[in-house]
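Changelog note: in this version the structure field was regenerated for every chain. One regenerated record is shown below for reference.
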Amino acid sequence: MSVVLVVDDDAAILRTLAINLRARGYEVETAADGRSALQVVEERVPDAIVLDLGLPDLDGLSVLQRLRAARRVPVVILSARHGTDDKVEALDEGADDYVTKPFEMEELMARVRAAVRRATPAGEPVVVSAGDVRLDVTERRATRAGAPVRLTPTEWHIVEVLARRPGHLVTQADLLHEVWGPGYSRETNYLRVFIAQLRRKLEADPSDPRIFLTDPGIGYRLVAD
């Protein structure tokens, strides 16, 4: 049974999400502040985390940073902050998804399902080399010129989908479906953000990419040696 940790200082939201997640077969842990959430993760790593940004002790971004320093668990941000800058900052810090309050329960549940699915990628071993970049998708190890590069779980999932068809075009719709699940075929801004992050981390010149190529308006391809 997959375990989901819900972190929010609103008792009503904690209770509602716990009821809905348990009704869908998840085991649920809850925390009302950041320090309690980090303690839960130390004792038992969940399969996914739903994290509010407006916590009473540690800011949600601080919690996210601490999680990312040691854990790969997917994190879905649930926040009343609607600004683009807030979303981009959270994604840059390693969040896998961002849902704003008020939210539709079915949409949030779909995003949690996608996050849990990303936690355990399956399939045959895949290793891709492109110039001085080596991507071991199976072991989730990335290096550039021999130095380790840390990728977020969502970045790894995008790499995994592209690496299974090196050199071939993967459409935006297919990539969104594989990484975020059904119903996300129009969220192309997600792809722009995460592909840009991958280029910053792995390309010699992110403005002139040679590994992660864009077919404008159509999709992306990973070019390997």
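Spot check on this record: DSSP finds eight helices and twelve strands in the chain. Residues 17 and 84 are 25 Å apart (CA to CA).
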